[in-house]
Design goal:
Layout (H helix, E strand, L loop, with lengths): L3 H10 L7 H13 L1 H22 L8
Helix pairs in contact: 1-2, 1-3, 2-3
């Protein structure tokens, strides 16, 4: 069984690399029973999305 420390580590890593099948399964089981880790994963995905949109915004200094 995966603990929360291991789960949050994998939730972070999955943003940067594909997880192995075993990692996906263990993480899926853990987040199915642990609402805190599930929420952490959602927050990580939201931050990734926001940061991608932010980097696409025009530079505000260019408008001066």
């Amino acid at each position: 069984m995966m603990n929360c420390k291991e789960a949050t580590q994998l939730l972070s890593e999955k943003l940067d690399r594909p997880l192995a099948t075993k990692e996906k399964v263990l993480l899926g089981v853990h987040t199915a029973i642990c609402s805190s880790c599930k929420q952490f994963g959602k927050q990580m995905e939201d931050l990734r999305t926001i940061s991608k949109h932010y980097t696409k915004l025009p530079d505000q200094d260019d408008k001066k």
